[in-house]
Amino acid sequence: MSTFQNCIDGAWVDAATGDTFTSTNPADTTDTIGTFPASGAADVDRAVAAARAALPDWRATPAPQRGTILRRIGDLLTERKAALAQAMTREMGKTVAETKGDVQEAIDTAYYAASETRRLFGHTVPSELPDKFNMAIRRPVGVCGIITAWNFPVAVPTWKIFPALAAGNTMVYKPSEESPHCGVLLVEILHDAGVPDGVINLVHGGGPAGQHLVAHDDVDAISFTGSSETGKAIGEVCGRTNKRVSLEMGGKNPMIVMDDADLDLALEGVLWGAFGTTGQRCTATSRLILHEAIHDTFVDMLTEAAQALTLGDGRTDGIDVGPLINEGALQKVQHYVAVGQEEGATLALGGSRVTGDGRDNGFFFAPTVFTDVTPAMTIAQEEIFGPVLSVFKVSSYEEAVDVANNTRYGLSSSIYTENVRHSFRAMHDLEAGITYVNGPTIGAEAHMPFGGVKETGNGHRDGGWTVFDFFTEWKTVYVDFSGELQKAQMDNVDD
User: Fold this and answer.
1) 323: which of 258, 358, 362, 443 fits an S-S bond (Cβ 3.0–4.6 Å)?
2) Is residue 494 part of a domain?
3) Among 7, 182, 238, 282, the one annotated catalytic
4) Catalytic pick from 98, 178, 248, 431?
5) Active-site residue 248, yes or no?
6) Residue 207 CA to its chain's centroid (Å)
C-alpha cells in the first residue's frame, strides 16, 4: 500500500498530526490505493502562507510566460493520458473511456487557458476631460481556495486551477477525499511543467480542512464544486468574511423528447446521460419527459437497452457502467428507490444492487427506471446522484417545459425535436444554465461557460472566457497628462 502526502511550497509533507485516511477502489474494496494525510488547520495555514508568499512573483510574471507553463502542462497531460485514466478509473470507478475523456477535458482546458494569457483584455475609453487617458485592466484576485468533487477528479479541478494560474493567482487545492490520488497525480504534472513552488499547494482531507480553508482570513476567493448543502454553507461563510466565492452545485436535469423526435438518437442520448458515470454527474439526465404520443414506445426501447448495459470494473473491456463511489452512495440510492415506490412510481427496471461475476466487493447498482412519476414526488425533486431515471408523460411542449422547470435546480437541460420553433423556444424557456438541442444533458466543452441558475449556482461560471471574470478583478486607471488639476465630475459645463 502506497503512502501519499500533501504538497506545500513545493515539498511533499505529512499532515501535522500524522493522521491519515485510506482510498480504495469502489469496484473492489479489497484493492487499497493508498493512505493520505487527514489534514487540519495547521496544514491549511502552512499552505495558505506558502501561496501568499509566492503571489508577488507569480503575479509579476508576464501572462504569456504563465501561458508557456500551461502549454507544457497540456503536453504532459497528453503524454500521461492513458496512465492517468487508468489510475482515475481505479480510484473513482467510471470506465476508462470516460476517464480518458476526463483527461482530454483537462488537456483542452490547459491549451485554452494558455491561449487566454495573450487575451486578458482590458478596456480603453475616452475621458470626459482633455489630455487624459482612461483604461481598465485585469488584476489577479490573490490566493484562491479550490475545492472540488470526486466524480471528475482531473477535469473539474483544471477548470478552476488553469484559469487561476493564467490570471496570476496562487492557490490551495483540496481535492475530494474520495479521489485524492488523482489530486496527487495532477499536482505532480503541474510541478513537472514548471509551476513554481508555492503557487499550487495540495492539502488532502475532509470537512475540517475544507472548512478552515473557506474561513481563512488570508484566502481571497473560494471556487467550489460539490453538493448544494455544502455549497450553501460555504456561501454563508464567504458572505460573512466578504470573500469572493463561486459555487457549482447540484442538478436535477430534464431531457424532453417530443413526438417528432428521432427516437433512436434520443435513446442513445438518455442512456449516456442517465447512466454514464453511473449517474454520478451534476449534469446527469435524471428526469426524462416524454410526449404521450411516443411515451410507451420509448419506454419499451429504453428498458430493453438499459437492461443490456454491462456493469463491472471500468478498466475491463466491454463494461458500460461502473460502481457507485462508496457504501454511503449505495445506501442513498437504495433509499430513493424505496421512496419512489412508496410514493406510487412504477419501478420499470432495476432498483437493486448487483453482485456476482466479480462484483461482490464493489458498489454496483443496476440501471433503474421509474415510470408514472409526477412532479411532486421526492424522486422528481431531489438529486439522487446515481443510475436512477424518472420518466414523466406530458401532452404538449408547454407542459413539458413546466415539468422541466419544476425544480429548485437549474444546471443542464435537453430537448429532442425536429421542430425548429420548439428548439428555439426551449433555448429561452428552459430554466437552466445549459440547454442542449438533440443532445443529452451532459458533455461540456472547455471553451464554453459551465454553470447553472437557481440553487445550482451563485451566478459565476467555470469554463470559457467567463471564468476569468471570477479569477480577475477590474482596476480602473486614469492618466492625466494635461499638466494641471482637472476635476472630473465637477460642474465644468457652462450654462
Assistant:
1) 362
2) no
3) 282
4) 248
5) yes
6) 19
